[in-house]
Design brief:
The protein has nine helices and eleven strands. By secondary structure, it is α+β, with helices and mostly antiparallel strands. The protein folds into two domains: about 160 residues, no CATH class; about 100 residues, Immunoglobulin-like. α5 packs antiparallel against α9. The longest helix is centred in the middle third of the chain and has 38 residues.
Length: about 270
Amino acid sequence: YILTYADSIPKEDLPYALYGPGFDNFKSYRSDVFFYAGDLESDYKNVERNELIKQISGYLNLVRSNEASDYDINRDMLARFLVSEDLAYPEMDREDLNRGWQETSTPNYYSEARLDQLKNDLKTEKYQALLKNYRAQKIAYRRGAQAKLNNGNSILELIKAYNPDVRIIYANVGIIGTALDGYDDVGGRSTPMRQTDVRNSIWEAELYLKKGTVKFRCNDSWLRNWGGNYGPDNLLVGDAMPDGNNIAVEEGTYHIKLDLSNYTYEFTKLSK
């Protein structure tokens, strides 16, 4: 979009538009399979089981071999270039780092002259070449990620064919965010949820929430966490996405349900 429609972007928004692509949750996600790889046990009497373990191990090796791809190594090339051009990172929200970049209230955080220079620089061959290279790498990475996802789904089908009742067991699921006691940056901890259905991994809680945002996570850690789907809407009912967006809520008391079999969540505001 920047390559084609740079002139249509207000100059005060350009730093956010340029730095934004480098902060993509999609590239940081790592599959849950690594948590369970150590549980694989061969059985020389069970040919089907051993074949399945070979398939899973092959998939894990494929994922590991692709983790240090050129895109991963160079994924911050755009940010490094902008810093070298003396364009500061956009200002972070000082009260809640999880909200990310905010429209700055600091006078002259970006001077008019610097923004005018940036708008002109975007038309130069140097900037155009950088943006084209970055776009190409991002497309290549996403295609590779889609291939890994397809491979993972194929392995999942093999596992389900071997054992239709197979499921991932989650423990110590909680909810955290500015709507409670804040995130880690202010010492916030996860508020525990109760597991109401062990087999289907349903977790529930009834909580008073302030106006703010929340996410779900296991063991008070970000290794496994879920948020809302990507997009402009903040929904109180939706898909629980690994490393997803913060979920925005208004003040009130809610019945909260997290389904970690179907990976959905639901916030129901109570009348009391």
